[in-house]
TrEMBL record:
Domain of life: Bacteria
The organism of origin for this protein: Streptomyces gancidicus BKS 13-15
Keywords from the named record: Oxidoreductase
Family of this protein: Belongs to the HIBADH-related family.
Keyword Nucleus: no
Domain NADPH-dependent reductive aminase-like C-terminal, chain residue ranges per copy: 161-285
Protein name: Dehydrogenase
Gene3D superfamilies found in the cross-reference section: N-(1-d-carboxylethyl)-l-norvaline Dehydrogenase, domain 2, NAD(P)-binding Rossmann-like Domain
InterPro entries for the chain: 6-PGluconate_DH-like_C_sf, 6PGD_dom2, 6PGDH_NADP-bd, HIBADH-related, HIBADH-related_NP60_sf, NAD(P)-bd_dom_sf, RedAm-like_C
GO molecular function, one term: NADP binding
Organismal lineage: Bacteria, Bacillati, Actinomycetota, Actinomycetes, Kitasatosporales
Pfam families attached to this UniProt entry: NAD_binding_2 (PF03446), RedAm-like_C (PF21761)
Residue span(s) of domain 6-phosphogluconate dehydrogenase NADP-binding: 5-117
Length: 290
């Protein structure tokens, strides 16, 4: 009595999803543009379909994990989606997800968009920390929650179908900012007699200690009071930035990753935000009203 699943797309991620559902005993029908990848799964119990249309016709719950939005368009054009529960785990932009949701609704399908916060080896491994962000039809999510929870944890972030993609990109963007900071830090020590493997634990612990600051930022954004709970004012922190730039210069390191952030700090200070936290920088990034 496990919910049958149709899965379109057997790349690295699709194959990992397929194996997780098979291992949990869900009847699974798969299709892939290049059929050899589907055949490999047939030995593990998957039913293979000769076309995307045939795969979609097999079951109500249809999960799509293709390269990009264009490949979803290519694959599903002309396929009857009437009465289907379409779950699109293909990475795309929030606007693509909203357009795809309207497109699915016009074809008589319920639509849920997903953003996978995991790499394939984390799929089907409980406690690996991977999860999928979902947004769109709440009734679809509730109905298939248990099935969707088989490959990875689930986090539903609202009815707006674009919000899973938006959360996905926001989280990964923060990650890249963190990697940028770490890259600058490693560059600073690189020419010295400092073992990077001795430095790394200090770096990891420091970043970990600083991460909870995002909760205060969130409180400040919600209240509109950017001075709330501030321990290091923008004025104090901006006064410190010349030492960071001078140290980079001394070490022969380009400041190109740090400078843009410092420039925003100076702009906010010039606007009168000296007693605030760094939160005002966020307002400077907003190019037009949302
Ligand atoms: P792969 O590159 O391994 O696989 C891509 C899949 O898309 C293949 O099944 C491929 O078919 C298919 N495909 C590409 N173009 C078309 C097309 N025009 N028509 C039909 N099928 C097409 O990618 P992944 O499996 O790794 O990723 C799939 C999705 O999951 C992506 O959106 C990715 O961003 C997302 N994701 C992946 C993560 C990862 O770490 N791998 C992490 C988080 C999200 P064929 O075999 O015929 O080439």
């Amino acid at each position: 009595d496990k919910t049958p699943v149709t899965l379109l797309g057997l790349g690295a991620m699709g194959t990992a999803l397929a194996r997780a559902w098979l291992a949990a005993g869900h009847p699974l029908t798969v299709w892939n543009r290049t059929p050899t990848r589907a055949r490999a799964l047939a030995a593990d119990g998957a039913r293979t379909a000769g076309s995307a249309a045939e795969a979609v016709a097999a079951h109500t719950l249809v999960v799509v994990c293709l390269l990009d939005d264009a490949s979803v368009e290519d694959t599903l054009t002309g396929v009857d989606l009437t009465g289907k529960d379409l779950v699109n785990l293909t990475t795309g932009t929030p606007a693509q997800a909203r357009t795809r949701a309207e497109w699915a609704a016009a074809r008589g399908a319920r639509y849920l968009d997903g953003g996978i916060m995991a790499v394939p080896p984390m799929i089907g491994v409980p406690d690996a920390g991977g999860y999928v962000l979902y947004s769109g039809a709440p009734d679809l999510f509730e109905q298939h929650r248990a099935t969707l929870a088989v490959p990875a944890g689930t986090a539903y972030v609202g009815e707006n179908p674009g919000h899973a993609a938006l959360h996905d990109v926001a989280l990964l963007s923060a990650m890249y900012g963190m990697f940028a900071g770490a890259a600058h830090a490693f560059a600073l020590i690189r020419r010295e007699d400092i073992d990077p493997t001795a430095f790394a634990p200090l770096l990891a612990d420091w970043l970990t200690a600083m991460v909870p600051a995002v909760h205060l930022t969130a409180e400040q954004l919600r209240s509109g009071d950017y001075t709330k709970g501030v321990t290091s004012t923008l004025a104090m922190q901006t006064a410190g930035t010349p030492a960071f730039l001078a140290t980079a210069e001394e070490q022969g390191v380009s400041p190109e990753l740090l400078s843009p952030y410092f420039a925003l700090m100076r702009r906010r200070l010039a606007e009168g935000g000296g007693e605030e936290d760094l939160t005002g920088v966020i307002d400077l990034l907003l190019r037009r009203p949302a």
